[in-house]
Amino acid sequence: MGSSNDIQADSNGHSAEVGTELELDVTNVAHGGIFIARHEGRVVFVSDTLPGERVRARLTSASHKSFWRAETVEVLTPAPERQPHIWAAAALDRDPVDRAGGAEFGHIELGFQRELKRQVLADALKRMAGIESEVMVEPVPVGPNASPGDAADGTGWRTRVRLHVDEDGSVGPYAARSHRVIPVGDLPLADRLLEAAAPLDKMFPGAASVDIVAPSLGTVQILVAEQDDKGRRRHTPKTLIREVVGEREFRLDAAGFWQVHTSAAETLYRAVQDIIDADAFDPRAANLDLYGGVGLLAAAVGDRFGSTVRMTSVESDPQATDFAAENLAEWVGASVQTSRVDRFLNALVRDSSSAEKARQSAATVILDPPRSGAGKEVIDLLGAVEPAQIVYVACDPVALARDIALLAGHGYILRRLRAFDLFPNTHHVEAVALLSR
Ligand SMILES: C[S@@+](CC[C@H](N)C(=O)[O-])C[C@H]1O[C@@H](n2cnc3c(N)ncnc32)[C@H](O)[C@@H]1O
């Protein structure tokens, strides 16, 4: 018997208990790697399936009035795009509580995964911003360490993997939708050098996590994070690594942010260079690289428009801004600021002279926020800065669509949009958008 929270009765007297099995027809994809079915009119979000399937699914949550959640137990009628899961540890023949997380589209043919990601992005833009988009999700190449077949099945691309640590010290990914550590024998999404170096059979008693990082130059790094006395992850000691993009080398801490797919940094560097409207670009304007990390996208702008271009890269992690200062050192017009973006923009809006305001309104702003997006406060501040163009690099389609709708309130129109499959076999998708007035 579930707890009282687990049982829900609606106004029609329909009720359900967690653990109940239902037969469901799956009709659509939703954001977040789950799919939509209906049971007696109520939406049920189902995992491990795809549109066009009939499945037997077990309810995992029935406490919400308007929707329930379920996980697939058995596929009764498979969709034509279903394939054997690329990772045995995440496959349907495992009990749902023992299925490894992080590859929630691995049972779907790669081309159709991209179609589903396109639908999620197009649907979010339509629903949240009223925009009809014909965006495609473009494939990207895998890196030099890939095995034959990796490009075809979307494996061998992940250059950063975090393994979690169980109470007894054994390591593994979390199970899907839980914090249960699952021991695994392989990591098919990982870069092949990373996978070979991963200490999957070693014990790390007392550790909080084990990060494995495969930089494009040098050897694979294994970073063991200890726990503090409250069980929180401690920072790992600084470990310098180097990443190469085109002709450029970036220095950074192995534990710091870097784009994850073997081709992601190069793809975004080129996409940002390509999408900027050169006619609207003013090298003397107060150009900004917001959420700048170690300077990847600022460098993309400098390398396209020349080293005298004025640009400030803003990032909250002081270690990342130290590296950004080094990485952009030969670029005379570049500067870096350690600050939260909202605080930086607040000061800009409050303190700028009228001459500086004119330089801001001629600016190109690169915006590459974390998964939650820029949000209303930052978008409203940007609206007050009134830059000439905004290049928005987004790893969450719904946050992007919300922020595009907010920017529309400040007169910005979506001019171009590209999307890239930088996370094959997961539901994630990266997009690069150009907005101007
Ligand atoms: C998606 S990453 C992009 C980094 C960089 N543009 C790149 O491509 O390598 C987002 C970055 O924003 C930083 N960040 C997160 N929240 C922030 C905030 N409120 N203000 C400034 N930076 C922030 C993170 O530390 C991270 O480096």
Summarize the structure.
The chain is of the alpha/beta class and 437 residues long. It is 24% helix and 27% strand.
Overview features:
437 residues, alpha/beta, OB fold (Dihydrolipoamide Acetyltransferase, E2P), Rossmann fold, 8-stranded mixed β-sheet, 5-stranded mixed β-barrel, 10 helices, 24% helix, disordered N terminus, binds S-adenosylmethionine
Report on the architecture of this protein.
The protein is α/β, with parallel strands linked by helices. It has 3 domains: 4-82, OB fold (Dihydrolipoamide Acetyltransferase, E2P) (Beta Barrel), CATH 2.40.50; 115-142 and 245-249 and 261-436, 3-Layer(aba) Sandwich (Rossmann fold), CATH 3.40.50.150; 152-237, no CATH class. The protein is 24% helix and 27% strand. The protein has an 8-stranded mixed beta sheet with strand order 8-20-21-19-18-15-16-17, sandwiched between helices. Strands 3-4-5-7-6 form a 5-stranded mixed β-barrel. Strands 10-9-11-12 form a 4-stranded antiparallel beta sheet, with no helix packed on it. α6 links the parallel β16 and β17. α1 (110-129) runs parallel beside α10, α4 packs across α5 (296-305) and α7 (341-351) runs parallel beside α9 (375-385). The chain is globular and about 65 Å long. Mean pLDDT is 94; it is low at 1-13. Bound molecules: S-adenosylmethionine. Residues 257, 259, 291-293, 296-297, 315-317, 320, 340-341, 368, 370 line the site of S-adenosylmethionine.
